[in-house]
Amino acid sequence: MTSPNEFTLKHWPAAVRAFHPEFAVVLGSGLAALAGAVSIGAAVPYADIAGLSCSTVPGHEGRFLFGILHGRRVVIASGRVHLYEGHSARQTAAGIRCLAALGVGTVVLTNAAGSANPAFAPGSWMMLCDHINLTAQSPLTGGPDFIDMTEVYCPRLRGVFRNAAKIARVGLHEGVYLAVQGPQYETPAEVRAFRSLGADAVGMSTVNEAVQARALGMRVAGFSCLTNAAAGLGSAPLHHGEVVETSRRAADDFLALLENAIPQF
Ligand code: HPA
User: Fold this and answer.
1) Ligand 1 center to 230 CA (angstroms)
2) Is 204 assigned a catalytic role?
3) pTM tops 0.90
4) 179 in any annotated domain
5) Closest CA to 171 of 123, 128, 111, 117
6) Which entry of 50, 65, 117, 203 is 20 to 30 Å from 124 by CA?
7) Considering 24, 35, 53, 85, which one is annotated as catalytic?
8) In this structure, which residue's CA is closest to atom 10 in ligand 1?
9) Helix or strand or coil: residue 66?
10) CATH number of the structural domain spanning residue 193
């Protein structure tokens, strides 16, 4: 049983129907500049696709960019919508169903997150080896999609990115991402609880997209830009501006990772 997909190619402008993307990258807060490395052939605002919503959050654009990165056809989903904006889990995963309708089989999800692991410094990247979904939501609600979640984040892709990190000389942690609904940041007591549950990073996105992508049979890789020490582990209060600014500065490292990983996809 696969998750129903309301999107079909007929939703897309003729220019991109024949594009046949090889993979997709979903950009988290402050990472829109990554798209600068892609030679863009077409841009489609989410607002032009019936059934897709736009984010209201600073640091999130709302458009698909079709282009070439390192010789491969890629769709960049620049911006996403979140549960904390009032969307359902199914709505937050609509972009993933769109990508599946376009024929995307591999999706790289990125996000900004707080580091709950004192060994993972702000400004560094963490590759997701697993997640804990504390949003208490699922994009699959309403259907009997009893999908296996043993290996959400593709082990082969993780190996590819591990190698890419060595080649690019970019430090890449691996750990467990825990998702909450937000929009408020966590309390120090919550962060202590999450650490005891096994979380290395905490954020407000990604998990429901990953669930949706797996339900559609896509290969998934996930990356957190650790923009700050999670509440209680750093010395200053958290600000969204700091999150966006740190991920902007870390974007080049992710690009280096991606460029070295792409030839091995
Ligand atoms: N908590 C939750 N989400 C986040 C954080 C955080 O500390 N930083 C960036 N996104």
Assistant:
1) 7
2) yes
3) yes
4) yes
5) 123
6) 65
7) 85
8) 113
9) strand
10) 3.40.50.1580
The one catalytic residue in 89, 93, 179, 204 is 204
Number of domains in the chain: 1
Q: What is the pLDDT along the chain (265 residues), one digit of tens a residue?
A: 456 688 888 778 887 888 899 999 999 877 888 888 888 888 999 988 888 888 777 766 789 999 999 899 999 999 899 999 999 999 999 999 999 999 999 999 999 999 999 999 999 999 999 999 999 999 999 988 899 999 999 999 999 999 999 999 999 999 999 999 999 999 999 999 999 999 999 999 999 999 999 999 999 999 999 999 999 998 888 888 888 778 877 888 999 999 999 999 8
Q: Which of 82, 87, 131, 173 is catalytic?
A: 82
Euclidean distance between CA atoms 75 and 30, whole angstroms? 18
Gap from CA of 211 to ligand 1 centroid (Å) = 20
Nearest alpha carbon, ligand 1 atom 3: 203
Residue 1 lies in a domain: no
Q: Which domain holds residue 116?
A: 9-236+247-264
- Specify the residue for token string 């870390």: 250
Q: Give the span between the Cα atoms of 128 and 122, in whole angstroms.
A: 16
- Is 4 among the domain residues? no
Return the number of other C-beta atoms located less than 10 Å from residue 183's C-beta.
13
Per the listing, tokens 């990983």 go with 261
Residue 185 lies inside a defined structural domain of this protein:
yes
